[in-house]
Specification:
Layout (H helix, E strand, L loop, with lengths): L5 E12 L2 E12 L3 E5 L6 H8 L7 E6 L2 E2 L5 H6 L2 E3 L12 H15 L7 H16 L14 H13 L5 E5 L7 H18 L2 E5 L3 H7 L2 E6 L2 E6 L1 H5 L2 H8 L2
Parallel strand pairs: 3-8, 3-9, 6-7, 7-8
Antiparallel strand pairs: 1-2, 1-4, 4-5, 9-10
Helix pairs in contact: 3-4, 3-5, 4-5, 5-6
Bound molecules: adenosine-5'-diphosphate.
Length: about 250
């Protein structure tokens, strides 16, 4: 069979909490190698949609196809093993462990899931962990306690940990949130570099429009649980409906 050119195909997913519809019939597709931003005001349903895609929540209606197969009945761990990895809005490094131990832990967890034989694991994982730290530019911080890193370096560490999962599709939840301008620019450059080098498909939520426009080929605008607009950065920035919700008029 031909390899699928659609990495992710989201079909009319709906999710209700009590009587409140958080995600209301959203469809979107992500081509292999595409970088799509998911934007929208607070409460638009972005995080809920991410949880539906990564298997943490089950939709009430609709379907999610990953590499051509429905993943509705697949566990988050199994989805991750198949190459879809995500980060969370809240930084999730192990604060008491060193930087290198954090990456080794991610590698170990992933390999154990893959039934990888852990002979000489410590030294092998250490070499691979250093390679990942190199990739995100924090090798020099390997022995530091992770909780004592700057917030920007913790974000880099999180990227090393998610890359340890050998993803094909990366879901990043606000990868530059909470960092100052220069650091944000470095993170944006790093994310683009990782996507290019590893030929990743990317779906990311982000509030910072400079980051969105710099990284994304395509943008989906979510508003009150529905798709308000979809298009290239140029199309979205010239869309009057999008301007309205962002200017609050
Ligand atoms: P965003 O990430 O775009 O800010 P969310 O997906 O976090 O939006 O939330 C969308 C809406 O769904 C919000 O109004 C939020 O309060 C509601 N919501 C999210 N998760 C739950 C939940 N577990 N229970 C009840 N309401 C929820």
């Amino acid at each position: 069979t031909m390899p699928s050119t659609i990495m992710l195909d989201v079909r009319k997913v709906k999710k209700q909490f009590g009587g409140f519809v958080a995600v209301n019939g959203v469809s979107l597709s992500l081509a292999t190698g595409e970088r799509r931003a998911l934007i929208g005001p607070n409460g638009a349903g972005k995080t809920t949609l991410f949880n539906l895609l990564s298997g943490r929540l089950a939709p009430d209606e609709g379907d999610v196809l990953y590499k051509g197969t429905s993943i509705l009945k697949v566990s988050p761990n199994e989805i991750c093993k198949r190459g879809m990895a995500r980060t969370f809005q809240i930084t999730s490094v192990f604060v008491k462990l060193s930087v290198i131990q954090n990456v080794q832990t991610a590698l170990y967890a992933h390999r154990r899931r893959s039934h990888w034989l852990l002979r000489n694991a410590a030294s092998v994982l250490r070499d691979e962990a250093y390679t990942l730290l190199d990739m995100v530019g924090i090798r020099a911080l390997a022995e530091r306690q992770a909780g004592l890193l700057s917030y920007g370096d913790q974000k880099r560490l999180e990227l090393a940990m998610v890359m340890a999962l050998e993803p094909q599709l990366l879901l990043l939840d606000e990868p530059t949130a909470g960092v100052e301008l220069n650091t944000r620019r470095e993170l944006v450059a790093l994310i683009k570099d990782l996507c290019t080098r590893k030929q990743l498909s990317l779906l990311f939520c982000e509030h910072d429009m400079d980051a969105v426009f710099s990284i994304a080929d395509q943008i989906t605008v979510l508003h009150q649980g529905q798709i308000l607009a979809e298009g290239t950065p140029g199309e979205i920035s010239n869309n009057p409906k999008v301007r309205d919700i962002y200017l609050g008029s």
